[in-house]
């Protein structure tokens, strides 16, 4: 154990002291904060105001299209040709032309401008005209505007209440689960590849021959896996602490900023109104985040990272020991990476059905569960399923370490020969460890 501890210490300290580790550890939470800030700013200040002249030959729509905070419409009786030539000089950004329309086939509506409409602006104008067309057609059938307005006000909102106590809404749970699963996919690849490169470099530089004079191959492999895994765990714990502080700071900021706003929205100017709306959105997001099972998500993520990493790192270490240069890794790493890639496809497939049979079985299979189960935890998982998945993952990780040790022991001192899968299979069948 003392020799393994020394190897772990060497692998850990040699990496956490690097500037790249410190920079990466600090930049990731700062990046999340910047993403949140950018989203907040875009919501608050995305105001591209357009003034649109409306030439309505039908006489049914110009006075019905309502202004918004960013779109202003003005009816004009000028000819279309004059408007197309002089709309900029008249202070307009474009001309909306509505000809006489056939209600059953309303074609010919055109927007003239040097600049195209944005997607939301175009969608708004289309919906306004479509809504008015619907009213006109219903009026022909004897349905008044008042009756139509009453029908339109009918809305249904399905609330969700989980009997397990999980109060997070479906959209947020899906987003949080997907982020957890995809993050797990990334870190397993990153740290697993780090193990493989470390083993391969020591082999090609012949450093491993010196090290194996003092320790057994199995001890060297375990020390490298655990040491690099400890680096990843340290990084995650720092990220969790920083994200907690950032989340706490955002809560104070949002609450403090909201308390400074006037009581009624009617007293606010446009910029203050946009800021108030952004604050309300931020408060809503903050409340939804608090409704997630954060403790279970963090604990589950750490557990599945540890044992998922151990399982795949052992495989990557075995690959690193079996190759002699970088070019040989391509053919051997694909089979190792394939289950991780399949996990992402499964993750995409079960986003709409987190409790389906595919989700259940894939969260139990050790090769897939490190990515699938953290996603399902956000929706609430029965305790027996979670325990079964954890036990199977632990057993799978230990079994993978045992098999990888067989490959590592033989491959680490094998030079000058390109290894095939058949030969690796023979190494795994051999008795002993």
Break the fold down into its secondary structure elements and pairings:
Blueprint: H1 2-16, H2 19-45, E1 50-56, E2 71-75, H3 80-86, E3 94-98, E4 110-112, H4 119-140, H5 145-152, H6 170-204, H7 207-211, H8 217-259, H9 270-291, H10 294-322, H11 329-349, H12 357-362, H13 369-377, H14 383-411, H15 421-429
Parallel strand pairs: 1-2, 1-3
Antiparallel strand pairs: 3-4
Helix pairs in contact: 1-8, 2-8, 2-9, 6-8, 6-10, 6-11, 6-13, 8-9, 8-10, 8-14, 10-11, 10-13, 10-14, 11-13, 14-15
Structure description:
With 433 residues, the chain is mainly alpha-helical. It has two domains: 2-41 and 168-429, no CATH class; 50-148, Periplasmic binding protein-like II (D-Maltodextrin-Binding Protein, domain 2, 3-Layer(aba) Sandwich). The protein is built from 15 helices and four strands. The chain has helices at 2-16, 19-45, 80-86, 119-140, 145-152, 170-204, 207-211, 217-259, 270-291, 294-322, 329-349, 357-362, 369-377, 383-411, 421-429, and strands at residues 50-56, 71-75, 94-98, 110-112. Strands 2-1-3-4 form a four-stranded mixed β-sheet, with helices on one face. Helix 11 (329-349) runs parallel beside helix 13 (369-377). The longest helix is centred in the middle third of the chain and has 43 residues, at 217-259. The model is unreliable at 257-270 (pLDDT under 50).
């Amino acid at each position: 154990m003392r020799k393994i501890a020394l190897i772990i210490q060497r692998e850990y300290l040699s990496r956490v002291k690097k500037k790249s580790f410190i920079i990466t550890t600090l930049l990731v939470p700062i990046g999340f904060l910047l993403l949140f800030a950018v989203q907040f700013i875009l919501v608050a200040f995305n105001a591209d105001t357009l003034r649109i002249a409306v030439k309505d030959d039908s006489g049914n729509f110009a006075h019905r299209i309502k202004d918004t905070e960013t779109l202003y419409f003005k009816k004009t009786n000028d000819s279309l040709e004059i408007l197309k030539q002089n709309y900029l000089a008249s202070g307009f950004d474009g001309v909306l032309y509505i000809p006489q329309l056939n209600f059953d086939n309303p074609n010919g509506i055109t927007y003239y401008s040097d600049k195209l409409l944005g997607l939301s602006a175009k969608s708004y104008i289309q919906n306004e005209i479509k809504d008015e067309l619907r009213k006109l057609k219903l009026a022909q059938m004897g349905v008044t505007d008042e009756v139509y307005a009453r029908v339109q006000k009918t809305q249904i909102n399905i609330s969700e209440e989980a009997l397990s106590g999980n109060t997070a809404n479906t959209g947020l749970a899906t987003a949080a689960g997907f982020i957890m699963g995809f993050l797990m996919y990334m870190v397993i690849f990153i740290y697993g590849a780090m193990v493989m490169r470390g083993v391969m470099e020591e082999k090609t530089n012949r450093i491993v021959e010196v090290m194996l004079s003092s320790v057994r191959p199995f001890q060297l492999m375990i020390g490298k896996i655990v040491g690099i895994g400890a680096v990843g765990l340290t990084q995650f714990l720092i990220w969790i602490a920083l994200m907690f502080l950032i989340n706490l700071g955002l809560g104070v900021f949002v609450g403090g900023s909201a308390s400074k706003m006037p009581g009624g929205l009617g007293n606010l100017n446009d910029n203050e109104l946009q800021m108030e709306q952004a604050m309300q959105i931020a408060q809503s997001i903050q409340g939804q985040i608090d409704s997630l099972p954060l403790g279970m998500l963090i604990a589950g993520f750490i557990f599945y990272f540890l044992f998922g990493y151990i399982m795949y790192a052992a495989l990557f270490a075995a690959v690193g020991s079996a190759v002699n240069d970088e070019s040989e890794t391509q053919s051997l790493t694909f089979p190792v990476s394939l289950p991780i890639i399949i996990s992402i496809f499964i993750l995409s497939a079960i986003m709409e059905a987190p409790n389906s049979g595919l989700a259940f079985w894939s969260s139990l299979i050790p090769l897939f569960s490190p990515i699938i189960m953290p996603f399902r935890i956000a929706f609430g998982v029965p305790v027996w399923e979670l325990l079964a998945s954890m036990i199977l993952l632990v057993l799978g990780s230990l079994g993978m370490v045992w098999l990888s040790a067989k490959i590592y022991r033989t491959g680490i001192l094998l030079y000058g020969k390109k290894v095939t899968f058949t030969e690796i299979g023979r190494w795994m069948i051999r008795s002993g460890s």
